[in-house]
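Much of the work behind modern protein science is quiet bookkeeping, done one molecule at a time. The protein below has been through that process, and both of its lines are reproduced in full.
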Amino acid sequence: METAELLGALCRELPALRTVAAGTGDSQALEETLAAARRGEPVTDRLRDLGLLDLLESWTARTVPPEAPGAGAPGGLVDLPGVDHSGHVAHGRYRCPLGTCRRAELPRPGDDLPVCALHDSPLRFG
């Protein structure tokens, strides 16, 4: 898994990874790994040492890539939350606020704004 893909998966799955790390007593080591990722340091080996890399890769393999055909509405178009249904649509995805990963989420009516778990900030639309 390349760095941008790994960081996207780490961001998306961080709540579950924190639960796993808490169960194994590795919470502090995971937080240190996250701090390293925020500084732009490679974290693949750290995640492997924690036993989280294989888990993260297996979770990622079971999800549909955000750019894959059939992901969401045709052409990536969905209704905007609160739209008056006059035909206005959003064309785009929520993406990493710092542009460091490949995470991309389709906007869905009624959903909360997706948040980057790694940097604790909302994803940007575009």
About this structure: The mean pLDDT is 81. Residues 3-61 form one domain. Helices lie at 3-24, 27-38, 44-49, 53-61. The first strand starts at residue 77 and ends at 79.
